Amino acid sequence: MGKTAFMFPGQGAQYVGMGKDFYEQIPVCREMFELAGKASGLDVVSLCFEENEQINITEYTQIAMLAAEVAMLKAVEEKGVKPDVTGGLSLGEYGALVASGVMSPEDVFRVVRKRGIYMQEAVPQGGAMVAVLGLDTAVIEKICEETEGCVTVANYNCPGQIVITGEEGAAQAAVEKLTAAGAKRCVKLNVSGPFHSPLLVDAGKKLAAELEKVEICDIAIPYIANVTADYVTDKGQVKSLLEKQVSSSVKWQQTVERMIADGVDTFIEIGPGKTLSGFMRKINRDMKVINIEKVEDLSKLDELV
What we know:
Blueprint: E1 3-8, H1 20-25, H2 27-40, H3 44-49, H4 58-78, E2 85-88, H5 92-99, H6 105-122, E3 127-133, H7 137-146, E4 151-158, E5 161-167, H8 168-180, E6 185-188, H9 201-211, H10 238-245, H11 252-261, E7 264-270, H12 275-283, E8 288-292
Parallel strand pairs: 1-2, 1-7, 7-8
Antiparallel strand pairs: 3-5, 3-6, 4-5
C-alpha cells in the first residue's frame, strides 16, 4: 500500500461560490468559514459566496482561498482519510500547516489575513509575473541571472512551466531573451505584484513579526516546505521558512518529486480548481490524483477509508 499526500493550491484558483456547498451542508465546514471571518475581521462568507471584485485582490484572495481549503480539509478528515505527508503551493502551504497540526485554523486565518495585506502593500509599481512554457529550467535560470534588474524564478510548477517574477522592465527584457531561446509561450499573469521575488523581502519581515504571536505545535504529520522542497523536522524552523517563502522561489515540482520518491502514490488536491492536478500530469502521469472541490467529490475517498 502506497502513501497518501494532501496538497493545497495557491492564489489564482479562487472564484465566487467556492466551498458554498460545504458551508451549506456540513456543520464543521460552516464553522471554519465563520472562524475565518472572526479571526480576520472580514465578512468571509460574503467574500466567498456573493459576487464581488475583492475576491481577486491579494489581501482578500488569500483569506478567502484559505477559508475554503480548511473547510474542505475538515470534511475530508471527517471521512476518516489521513495523509502521510502534506504540502501546498505558496498560500496553500498554510492549508498544509493545518493538516499537519502545526498551526490552529484560527491562527492560520489571522496570519494569512496579515500576509495578504503585507504582500499587497509591498507591491512596487510595475512588478510582473510571467509563465514561461516549454523551455528548459536551466536556460530560464541562466537568462534571469544575466538580465539586468530584478528578475528571478517565482515558481517551479512542473516540467515545461516555470513562472518568473520581478521588476516589469527586467521581466520584459527576460521575456525577449526567453522567446529568442525557444520558449513556446510567455504568458503575463494577471496578478497584482511580483510575488516570490526579492522585492517582497520587507513583506516577509512584517509577516515574521506577526508569526511571533503564534504558537507552533509539534509536527503531527510530515509536511514539505516550499522554500526547501524538504521535510520540516524541527518546528523551530517553521516561522523562518514562512518568512522566506514570501520572497523565495516556490519549489513545487521538487516537492512533489520528493513525495513520490518517498512512496506517495495517491495525491488528494483539496481546494478550488484543479491546478495542482494539472501539474501532476506533467510531473508524473502514473500517480493517482483525487480532487476535492465539491461535496460530491467526497465519495471519491470511499475507497481510501
